Predict the structure of ROK family transcriptional regulator.
Amino acid sequence: MRTSTNNTDVRRVNRNRVFRFINHTKETCMSEISSALEISGPTVMSIVKELKEAGVIREVGEYESTGGRKAKAIASVKDFQYTIGVDITLNHVGLVYTDLSEEALAHRRIPKPFRNDKQYIEEIADIVEQFVEENDVPQERILGMGVSLPAIIDQTRQMIPNSHVLGYYDVPCEEWISRMPYPCVVMNDASAAALAEVAGEKRQESMVYLLLSNSVGGAVFLRPENKNGDEEGNASSSRVYMHEGDHWRSSEFGHMTLYPGGEPCYCGKKGCVDVYCSAKKLAELENGKLERFFEKLEEGEPEYRDVWDRYLDYLAVTVDNLRMAFDCDVVLGGYVGSFIGPYIKELRSRLAALDIFDHDGSYARACRYQKEASALGAALYQMEEYISSI
Ligand SMILES: [Zn+2]
């Protein structure tokens, strides 16, 4: 019995690997899949047949022959399913939609101050429907949607126990889910942004995502333990998983103490990472406009250079602490993450000086998704569930 269970599992895992491989390439053929994934030709052939029957892949032409039969070119049917993502912040609503490509196909950001009432949630539902209409997304192919909030989300009890940012306490997720026009999940904004970062990755490696927006948060993705593949010797197809913590409060990096007895934090403690590393620390010099801060920094304004140097010093200690705790790459996301690209070397040289093992800071990098990462991640949650089920 055990052997047959294993065979079924291997078959399911291989089917998913084949689909993901096809989905990650523009087009491919069976021999390419077979050699890339080290799965036998006949197995690939039967999986491809199944996926074609399921409608998730199709033939898109033939490759030039070098003698013998021409190989069929196959590709995934990207528009087979769609999902929508919504990001709620204190002053804005962000929207994104995606398909099997897992890219943001369109995004929109609307100024809309948050209100703690049911009417507000209904207005968000209307905005989602407008967005779907404007972009001609076929309703019958919308799998579902996600809403990201700057809040702790207790997924077991389906509750939002608190959001300091929104002043929102003990709200059932159902308040949102029941009013949205499509099957909906509610997520933490930092977890959503981090999901956008890992979803499209071919290589699934552990990763810490540090969200540097008007508050500091993040997420930790860990690689499952079976590093060397399953019992059949196949490379593992297992995806990284998010470490959520016993109380859904993992990765509250903003409230790690960076400076004992330091400046007061909105959480009530002193010297939290949030006080020194939030985007506000920089944007406050320009009435909240972070973009202006970076323009002045680039222009070489000495005061801005000093503030930035101090900011990088604090950020480096935070990132080094995360590296010491998790021993994996650290991705810098959020508002600051989208501007840090040109300055990553400055951060890395600080990290190299702090690194007791390799004297190397190259494990830190800027995020790939700079616009509407939380909205995209909220859309990707259900898309990833769907792709995992293929
Ligand atoms: Zn704090």
Residues 203-366 form a domain with the Nucleotidyltransferase; domain 5 fold (CATH 3.30.420.40). The first helix runs from residue 2 to 24. The two ends are 24 Å apart (CA to CA). The chain has three domains: 2-76, 80-197+373-389, 203-366.
